[in-house]
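Table S4 entry, Carboxylesterase type B domain-containing protein.
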Amino acid sequence: MSGNVIDYQYGKLRGILVTLPNHALPQVESYLGLQYASLLGGELRFMPPTSPMEKWNGVRVALKFRPVCPQKRLDIDELYRVLPEGRANHFKRLQAFLESQTEDCLNLNIYVPVVGKCTINKCVHLVLFGHKASAA
C-alpha cells in the first residue's frame, strides 16, 4: 500500500505500490478503477455522461480494476493457429481482464513513478478535463 494519500475533489485516495518485473524501472503507485464519468448503470446510453460520483468520507483505496468496455472475446485456440506463440501467449494473458465487461466503463488506471518523497514543490499533478469535471 502506498504511503501517499491524494486529495481528490471527491475525497481522499490511496494507491498501491507496484514493483515492476524490470528492476531497472522504479516502483510505481497505481490508482486503479478511478471513475471519471458515469452512464448511471446504462440509463444514459447514447447520452452525455454525468459527473463521476458523489463525494466520500475517509480514504478510499484504489486497488481494483473496474470492468472493461464490452468487446469480443478471443478464441485462444484460433490465435495459436494463426499467430506466433509469443503473441498468442500475450493475448492469453489478457483474457483474464476481459472477464468482467460493462457499458459503464468510464474509468482510468493511473500509474505514477515513485521517485522519492512527495513535497509541496515536488509532486506530479494530474488534471482531467471533460465531462464538466476535473481533478488535480
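The chain is about 10% helix and 20% strand.
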